[in-house]
Amino acid sequence: MTALPAAIPRSPTMSAMPARHPTSPAVYAGVDLGATKIEVVVTGADLVPAAQARAATPLRGGPPAVVTAIKAAVEEALAASPHASLTAVGAGVPGQVDDSTGAVAKSPNIRGWTASYPLRAELGDKLGVPVAVDNDVRTALLGEHRLGAAAPYGDVLAVWFGTGVGGALLLDGVVRRGRLGACGEIGHACASPGGRRCACGRRGCLEAYAGRG
Predict the structure, then answer these.
(1) Helix (H, G, I), strand (E, B) or coil at 140
(2) CB under 8 Å to 64, separation ≥6 — which residues?
């Protein structure tokens, strides 16, 4: 499950967006981008799911094709919900995210994603609303801490197994990012020096043995 961060980071696209009427209800879309599929849920301010949509992650076209697929999935979910328009979008992505820009470094498990890409800005331009972007496991941990199994705890290590192996760390009730935005990411820790080649290009990474990729 992808959760919206507490505050939507300001993106370069936000200054050009019209202000929402103060009496309009808030409507959010959460996006979970994976190596094989894109899942979207639309909620009201209560964060109760109102509609969902799923699409295959494009195998060709790189990040621009992914953005187009996300836009289509968000629009499909919104059309199936009782809501007329979006307030903001939060996206969890498998990769290292620059917190200041919303750019995603190369995402080894998504075909064609080989360099840093300004995902927050591009999604904001496509969808016309503020967008928040963070690592997928970090957003999942945030959601569990606020609404799920991790709610009673202040210190949590979250590990997600999928195409790769993702990790995130909560300490003293705060999801930690680390200096490079990779705190808790255990999938590319070396489990076997000189071992199997990982999608990231190195050898012996944990997810080369424990992931589905």
Answers:
(1) helix
(2) 122
Q: What span, in angstroms and rounded, lies between the C-alpha atoms of 144 and 126?
A: 29
- Chain-centroid distance of CA 123 in Å reads 12
Under 8 Å between Cβ of 73 and 41:
no
> Poorest-confidence range of 14-23, 161-170, 195-204?
14-23
DSSP 8-state class, residue 14: G
- CB-count burial class (<10 Å; 0-12, 13-18, 19+) for 22: exposed
Query: What is the tens place of the pLDDT at every residue in 128-181?
Result: 999 999 999 999 999 999 889 999 999 999 998 888 888 899 999 999 988 777
Residues forming a β-bridge with 38:
33, 55
What counts of helices (H) and strands (E) characterise the chain? 4, 8
Q: Which long-range contacts (CB under 8 A, 24 or more apart) does 97-102 make?
A: 97/133, 97/134, 97/135, 97/181, 98/181, 99/9, 99/134, 99/177, 99/181, 102/9, 102/11, 102/131, 102/132, 102/133
Sheet bearing 174-176, strands edge to edge: 156-161, 165-171, 174-176
Q: How far apart are CA 176 and CA 130, in angstroms?
A: 23
Structural domains in the chain, CATH included, are 14-138 (3.30.420.40), 148-210 (3.30.420.40)
